[in-house]
Specification:
Blueprint (H helix, E strand, L loop, with lengths): L1 E7 L2 E8 L10 E5 L9 E7 L4 E2 L8 E5 L3 H6 L9 E5 L4 E2 L4 E4 L6 E2 L2 E7 L9 H7 E8 L2 E2 H7 L3 H4 L5 E8 L8 E6 L2 E7 L7 H9 L9 E3 L14 E6 L3 E9 L2
Parallel strand pairs: 6-17, 8-14, 9-19
Antiparallel strand pairs: 1-2, 1-5, 1-14, 2-3, 3-4, 6-7, 10-13, 11-12, 11-17, 12-14, 15-16, 15-18, 18-19
């Protein structure tokens, strides 16, 4: 099931996206659901063509928990060792934008880079100190994410907060996909149709259940919280006017324009 959050003529709703994404947005419809998507899905009977609504970030979490250096090739390209346990940092909820929203380049940085990532969405039960089985049960679904990073500021500051936290630095979407196996799927980033990153989730240092369990032993994960699972090698600078597309096999494609902050 593909669940989107979208704006329409009457307001904002969650809905189930119907149709085949391979046919493009013109072949998709979205069926409105009553309330939020956690729990039993109840349809209102309202339906729109996806091309006639604005897709928003599929969820607004209380927090975005990120995992650094979770692909060995990415750790190596930045000159870092692979961590012995998951390396965690946070992005604020204010960094989140949705599909087709603009990534804004701040004047403080001259080297803003893309990081294509699989994002995990926590379900209605949340997660607190769960084991691997409990972690799997706590997962609602998955979406695409771009862990936008001001690399020069990251090197300057050593810790990650400022480099990862600017407004618009966490695009997610276009929807949440439930009931899929993401243990070995392709993670891709294209900039202006050029492939910059290409990896597979099987190459993660720590797999998804391990990450969810680990994070839950540090902080309580609430319904709708997001975990970014790391990025493969190939991160590179984005500049004004670039079109960046993060694609996760079996999940979807997230497209964002890059613009200079004015």
């Amino acid at each position: 099931m593909r669940i989107a959050r979208f704006a329409h003529s009457s307001g904002m709703s969650f809905g189930v996206v119907e149709g085949e994404p391979s046919a493009g947005l013109s072949g998709l419809t979205v069926a409105e659901i009553d309330g939020h998507p956690f729990g039993e899905i109840k349809f209102t009977g309202q339906r729109w063509a996806v091309a006639d609504v604005r897709l928003l970030s599929p969820i607004l979490p209380s927090k975005v928990v990120c995992v650094g250096r979770n692909y060995a090739d990415h750790a190596a390209e930045l000159g870092n060792d692979v961590p012995k346990e998951p390396l965690l940092f946070l992005k604020p909820s204010t960094s989140i934008i949705g599909p087709n929203d603009a990534i804004r380049l701040p004047p403080q940085s001259q080297q803003v880079e893309h990081e294509a990532e699989l994002a995990v969405i926590i379900g209605v039960t949340g997660a607190r100190r769960v084991d691997r089985a409990g972690a799997a049960a706590a997962i609602f679904g998955y979406t695409c994410a771009n862990d936008v990073t001001a690399r020069d500021l990251q090197r300057k500051d050593v810790q990650f907060t400022r480099a990862k936290s600017f407004d618009s630095f966490c695009p997610i979407g276009p929807w949440i996909v439930t009931g899929v196996d993401v243990s070995d799927v392709e993670v891709r980033c294209e900039v202006n149709d050029e492939v910059r990153q290409l990896g597979r989730t099987k190459d993660m240092v720590f797999d998804v259940p391990t990450l969810v369990s680990y994070v839950s032993h540090v902080m309580t994960l609430l319904p709708g919280d997001v975990i970014l699972t790391g990025t493969p090698a190939g991160v590179s600078r984005m500049v004004n006017g670039d079109e960046v597309v993060v694609s996760i096999e079996g999940v979807g494609a997230l497209s964002n324009k890059v613009l200079t902050l004015e």
